[in-house]
Amino acid sequence: MKKIGFIGLGYLGKTIAGRLISQGEELVIWNRTIEKGRGMPAELVDCPKQVAQRSDVIFLNLFDSAAVRAVLTGGGGLFDADVAGKLVIDTTTNHFSDVLGFHELCSKKGCRYLEAPVLGSVIPASQGNLVILVSGETAAYERARPYLEKIGKTIFYLREPALANKMKLVNNLVLGTFMAVIAEATVLGERSGAAKETVLDILSAGAGNSGVMNAKKERILNEDFSTHFSAALIYKDLHYIQDLARTLRMPLFTGAVT
């Protein structure tokens, strides 16, 4: 069985890689800090080029578009190998303008590029319950689909390049602002005299009822602040969101405050 390539072992990337392994896939992996890959039942290599040499389907889960560009075109990058006929599945949340360039770069190299940013963090990733937004050629999507179905429960195929990342940013506008509101409302309720659990129960039964609340309620109660989605990532995404809004000449007042 041909191994699947996987590049990027942050909180989410490592969990997605682990999910693929649990579903019977053999992986060849690379991460900038290779220590994150030690102990995983997968082949560790020294650079992205070696990932491309050992696999035909390559997942990316990286911090931002600059990291994706470096993995594709940097020294020892994927494009230092012969990537003709290969498929790159990029689950990174990218800048909507950069991702158009990635489609073009891969096309010139003879490989297919598929945007596949995901909705959900570590827990749904470990359970194969991510929501996946996909843009790219239909043939690339059909080729990727068996792998995507191992990590996600719902897939939206949007086809048009960059649309998947734009919709991911739209979702993260809601995520970022709503998490900030939950935090403020919880503290406001406590200082008004209610117990934290009571505040969260009221919000859950009322206007705060949502997937975000369901995912975070117990962690807020237990003061579990372990990282599932870093502040640096949502900060990056909120800036990408403002860039998108500016191109559309649309002010985002709540997003700007967040």
Describe this structure in words.
With 258 residues, the chain is of the alpha/beta class. It folds into 2 domains: 3-159, 3-Layer(aba) Sandwich (Rossmann fold), CATH 3.40.50; 166-257, N-(1-d-carboxylethyl)-l-norvaline Dehydrogenase, domain 2, CATH 1.10.1040.10. The chain is 52% helix and 16% strand. The chain is built from 11 helices and 9 strands. It has a 6-stranded parallel β-sheet, sandwiched between helices. The protein has a 3-stranded mixed β-sheet with strand order 7-8-9. Helix 7 (163-191) crosses helix 8, helix 7 crosses helix 10 and helix 8 packs antiparallel against helix 9 (211-221).
**How many domain units?**
2
CATH superfamily of the largest domain: NAD(P)-binding Rossmann-like Domain
Low-confidence stretches: none
CATH topology of the largest domain, anyone?
A: Rossmann fold
| First-last Cα distance | 47 Å
The major pleated sheet works out as:
6 strands, parallel
- Tally of DSSP β-strands: 9
Q: Tally the helices: what do you get?
A: 11
Percent of residues in helices comes to 40-55%
Task: Briefly note the structural class of the backbone.
Answer: alpha/beta
CATH structural class of the largest domain: Alpha Beta
Helix and strand element order: EHEEHEHEHEEHEHEHHHHH
Shape: globular
Give the strand content: 15-25%
Q: What's the gyration radius in Å?
A: 19 Å
Strand order of the largest sheet: 3-2-1-4-5-6
pLDDT averaged over residues: 94
Per CATH, which architecture of the largest domain? 3-Layer(aba) Sandwich
